[in-house]
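fyi for ur records
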Amino acid sequence: MRAAVQTGLRTLEVRDLPAPAPGAGEALVRVHTAGICGSDLHPYHGRAEPQSLPDGHEVSGEVVALPADYHGPLRPGDLVALDTICLGVACGACALCRAGQPFHCPARTSGPRRGGGFAELIARKTAGLFRLPPGLTAEQGALVEPLAVGVHAVRWARLPAGASVAIIGAGTIGLMTLLAARALGAGPVHVLARHAHQAALAEALGATVVLPAEPATAIEQVRAATGGRGVDLVVETVGGHADTVNLAWELARVQGTVAVVGIFSERVPVDLLRPVIRELWATFPICYGVIDGRHDFDVAIELIAAGRAPVERLVTHRLPLDAAPAAFRIAADKTTGSVKVHLLAR
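which gave:
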């Protein structure tokens, strides 16, 4: 099969690799669409060691083969969205898996590494395959995963109906959180956007107010819009090296909630006095799982199918798998106007 593999710092090559051999309980899926995530760009910029397997976790495709002992609803030919990170590799039997929280399964990171979706084929456990209903496209299917991240953030933060929300960041996860918050009952949603094209898209997707990412201005405008109180829920979606957690404390109202979704791979200075004296709730949602009996992927698919989350509007660039090096350059350079860049394996 063809696959895009990182071979050095900001360098990818598309190579012929052996097709994955499905293990016990695994299905083989022919990839249709794979999205480049911000978490794919972090190693792209910072990982010099050549890789032997492709990355890629925002994936949709067609079921090619199922395990011989599989008796579930999936059939070869079904179009599916894949949870490649959690259910696709978790054991399914430990207490955390039984509780619907496979991200925390000890087996998830201790088993052999499986190649991701920047390839023509991918193998994953059938528990990680979510069949798409009629009418949903492969492009929408590849956007189920990032929408599920936003859905999980909003649900894990226990968003009350009508609550005011501020979202720090207007990249893919920030915009998906905007869609999730609006669809799941939020009141006014303020989005802090760094780039003009992100701000325009946030407005088009229903943000009540789009604010500059400059902290002092954002704080002033959020407080002005909320009578000086701040918002009920702040969702931080930037991560990296930004000072956005401290900004979140300032945007939240007294006894409000801050949900930190962005990934900080290195330590950053965080003021802990401010959230203490404001008596804030802070939580750190990651990936997806089961909340109140429903998996975040199922909720995300339902919202897309109902037209309440027009995720396809985030896709700015579509390139064939063989153009993966160019696709990554586009995704990494926001002057291109990129939001979501998709690789098309078929």
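The chain has two domains: 2-146+290-344, 158-283. thats all i got for now
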